Amino acid sequence: MGVSVPLLSKTLLLLLVWLVNFQSVQSLLRIDRSHFCNARTGKKVYEDHLCADLMDLLTVKGLHFERFKAESAPTFKDTGAVCTFSRLEASSGKDCCRGWAGVNCDIAVCEPSCQHGKCVDTGKSITAPPECQCDPLYKGKGCEEETSQLTEELRFCYAGGDCHGTILGGGVAMPITRCCEDLGGTTWGSQDQSHGCTPCSPGSPECILKDGVVESVASGGTATCMASGDIYRTLDGVVFKYHSVCAVGMLITDALRIYTVSRCDPVDRSTCSKDVIIEIEATTYTLTSTTLTVHDGSDSISFDISKLVHNRPTAVNNKGTVNLKYDALQETTSVSIEAFDVIVQVDADGTFILVVREDSPLKASVQGVCGNMDGDYADELALQTAVGAQKVFEKFKKDSIACGSSVQTCPPNLEDDANEACSALSTAFTECHKAVTINDYLERCRSYYCASMTAPGGGPQAAQKAVCNVLSSYNKVCTMITGTATMWRTPQLCPKNCPAPYVFTSRMRKCPIMCGLSPMSYTRSECYSSMRFSGCDCPLGMARLNDTCVAPTDCQCVADNGKFYSKGAAIVSGDHCQSCICGEYGLWQCTPSPDRCSATCSINQGRLVKTFDGKLYAIGNSCGTLQLAKSPEIDIQMETSTCTQSGNGVHVCPTFISVTYRGKTSTLDISVEGVSIVNGYSPNVYIRQVSRHIYVVDVRGGNARIFVNLDGTVHLKMKTSLYKNKLVGLCGNMDGNKDNDFTTYSQASVNGQAFLEVFTSCPTVTYTELSPVPMNPLCHVEDRRG
């Protein structure tokens, strides 16, 4: 029986419909298996413009100064000079997520490749990279380890750090001597932590740098230690991982001890950060996310960080040796310890940073988790093993400080959401992945996300903040190791909430436009860096002024008393030495004003004196008290003794300064054993340390100012408007005439020997006249009348 034509046509039609639907389903399935991610790229474009248009190009067009053109004159005064500027053209689109390739981003590509297994989709999320599914008897990220070969004496040899990267020796387990000596391996062991991973002693730091494990000590005369979650970096550049929530000594010396303890706040801060405990002699400084508490054994005082003036140092002890500062835009708190050239910084994302100058007096005695700062990373590589890190943390733990807290792993019902929220680690930092593995940060990101989502008072907003904090921490570690910052923040991904009138930008200048800086300052070599930062800055075309933004043409000038003056305003400088007019861009245009000048007297180790008026003489057999300057309201004296070497190797010339102002005496006593200050923190007299070697005594906000160096050099600066022709003492009478400096209390003129016998208490003192010197150059004005 034959089939009718209509029936055949109907059958063919149904078959065609089925085929079309099947193709559609296949297409949908292929889309579901696709792994597309948002991608951002940037291209640097160069332009040539007249150098004279610098400020307009920087502020209005948002360009960055690069260099002077070689064929043009390198000066902004030449109206025809040509300069090269740059701008960054950013674009966004879709690209395959990390670990995926192909037209539809559905081809799994594991890194490293799976040697004994297959690369599969984990199914965790669209953005999650694939992983190797190893054959039986094989383990490792790339299924490269045949576990049956592992024994106590035989393990695998790796070219990379932490037993990752290329496996040497054809994948055959071997003794450590063959790995480290014959094959030049970097680490010996297994990715299975039960067998451990032991670093070799590489012949040069490049072996470690190549794998992004160790970076050399930071340039610029400083060394930096960092802690971010469980990731640490020593002062000599060794990066390692260790989990501990208890107090541990980051930097330990006889004079200074700095401890940290982990503290998790899943709601308000949405991160785990470090509380910092600083011990200097008998005083303890405890820095948390909101306060700095100073405890000297008998009394405590707390400083509310949120109430500090933006970026203005605040002295937190009466010596001025410890200063607290808060950057409201970057949300960073720093404590500077001037005597030891040490800065401690804690960021909003929980990152702890410790910076030590290379010439710090502590350098020879540093211990702790931050390492020994000897410039040799090799003696710290044991920290990269679990056993080595545990030994160091056990050695420097502080049991008297209560342990902190941590967060739990993510519950199963939130894993997919956490993976999706943390996917930017895989997509926004592709240039960092070779230097810093994201596995630890993915684990931390998921844990922080879930902790902030489920904590009382938490929720989606706190969880998203937690993710952003982890991304920020990862970027800082990557920048520390690679030297390159990633522009990862966007208006959609973790935009910074900037206080008005600032706006968030992913292309922040290294040298932002500020009132009070000349156009030439933006051409400094340190501003040439191609590295860009994200953060809060003024809108395009505006300049910073006192925590607000103004047009560059509206910049005000700030005086040394903190007051602001508009363009054209005329004032006398705070030291009464110059007459100044407020000019363009908030820059003062000043000329010397000799009638209002301050004068300076210099004394070197109590033996060499240059008076206020410029007379130079030497004191032989100097001893006892030296009367430097005396008037009806002020009396300044000093004593010195033999110079010697301190225990820290610093050359110290003991100096005692006594200032009696309106009947109240304040003293500064510098000795080999240390520094003692009495009545140094009052409205009239303020004594503080301004650098490792220099102390300053301020009288009435600068009416008189004494700079005292540990090497025995003393500079006494006093205002001529207040003290001119009113002083007696070894520094002279400050009347502008050096030839009549030697006068007594009764204003009688005497010779040099008699002068010293009046103003010193040493019976064997002798006077020596030295070569004449010109008048105080600060007050001297040339006669230009021809």
TrEMBL record:
Q: VWFD domain: which residues?
A: 223-423, 599-772
The membrane spanning regions, by residue number, are none
Domain EGF-like: from-to ranges: 106-144
Question: What Pfam families does the record point to?
Answer: C8, VWD
- Signal peptide range: 1-27
**SUPFAM superfamilies found in the cross-reference section:** Serine protease inhibitors (SSF57567)
Q: Does the keyword Glycoprotein apply?
A: yes
Q: Which cysteines bridge via disulfide bonds?
A: C134-C143
* Assigned keywords, A-Z: Disulfide bond, EGF-like domain, Glycoprotein, Signal
Q: Could you tell me what this protein is called? A: VWFD domain-containing protein
**Which organism is the protein's source?**
Elysia chlorotica (Eastern emerald elysia)
Q: What is the lineage of its organism?
A: Eukaryota, Metazoa, Spiralia, Lophotrochozoa, Mollusca
